[in-house]
């Protein structure tokens, strides 16, 4: 999108830019051009919902599997037996002090990239459209294979 502004010698009004990006997202045109959410909405970090972060399962480090380590700081859980670990829905464990700052900026597991819910309606709509596009492509592939195999 910034290239469009440069190419057409227009003044960049952030409000206009967001309106255009929102129109592209809501109309689904972004899929045709292969635009990602970060390209449509630069500098807009999408963190996990604070409610989701508060509801993560807490685990004592002494109950963690032996020799397991935090994927963020690489510290062994058994070295800090009194530490509190947080378990994400994907079952990965992290030190609380490591994962909270991550989830405030990114709504994914840093280990496997599985998504967590956010409070950002635009981002959630983007994820729904991506999911529909993937399902549509899988359906087309299945149809093609059934016709030509």
Number of helices: 7
Strand share of the residues?
A: 5-15%
Residue windows where pLDDT falls under 50 for at least 5 positions: none
Overall geometry: extended
CATH architecture label of the domain at 50-105 = 2-Layer Sandwich
CATH superfamily of the domain at 50-105: Zinc/RING finger domain, C3HC4 (zinc finger)
Question: What is the CATH T-level topology of the domain at 50-105?
Answer: Herpes Virus-1
CATH class designation of the domain at 50-105: Alpha Beta
Round the mean pLDDT to the nearest integer and report it. 78
Work out the number of β strands. Answer: 3
Strand order of the largest sheet: 1-2-3
Q: How helical, in percent, are the residues?
A: 40-55%
Distance between the termini: 42 Å
Instruction: Evaluate the radius of gyration.
Output: 20 Å
Structural class: mainly alpha
Question: What is the H/E order?
Answer: HHHHHEEEHH
Largest sheet: 3 strands, antiparallel
Architecture overview:
With 149 residues, this protein is mostly helical. The protein has a domain at 50-105: Zinc/RING finger domain, C3HC4 (zinc finger) (Herpes Virus-1), CATH 3.30.40.10. It has seven helices and three strands, in the order H-H-H-H-H-E-E-E-H-H. Strands 1-2-3 form a three-stranded antiparallel β-sheet. A hairpin with a 5-residue loop joins strand 2 (84-87) and strand 3. The termini are far apart. The mean pLDDT is 78.
Question: What distinguishing features does this structure have?
Answer:
about 150 residues, mainly alpha, Herpes Virus-1, three-stranded antiparallel β-sheet, 7 helices, about 5% strand, extended, zinc, RING-type domain-containing protein, zinc-finger
């Amino acid at each position: 999108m910034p290239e469009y502004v440069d190419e057409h010698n227009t003044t960049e009004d952030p409000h206009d830019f967001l309106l255009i990006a929102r129109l592209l997202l809501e109309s689904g045109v972004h899929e045709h051009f292969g635009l990602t959410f970060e390209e449509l909405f630069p500098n807009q970090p999408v963190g996990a919902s604070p409610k989701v972060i508060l509801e993560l399962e807490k685990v004592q480090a002494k109950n963690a599997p032996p020799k397991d380590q935090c994927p963020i700081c690489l510290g062994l859980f058994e070295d800090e037996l009194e530490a509190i670990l947080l378990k994400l829905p994907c079952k990965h464990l992290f030190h609380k002090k490591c994962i909270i700052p991550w989830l405030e900026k990114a709504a994914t597991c840093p280990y496997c990239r599985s998504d967590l819910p956010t409070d950002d309606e635009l981002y959630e709509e983007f994820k729904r459209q991506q999911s529909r596009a993937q399902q549509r492509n899988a359906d087309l592939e299945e149809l093609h294979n059934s016709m030509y195999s």
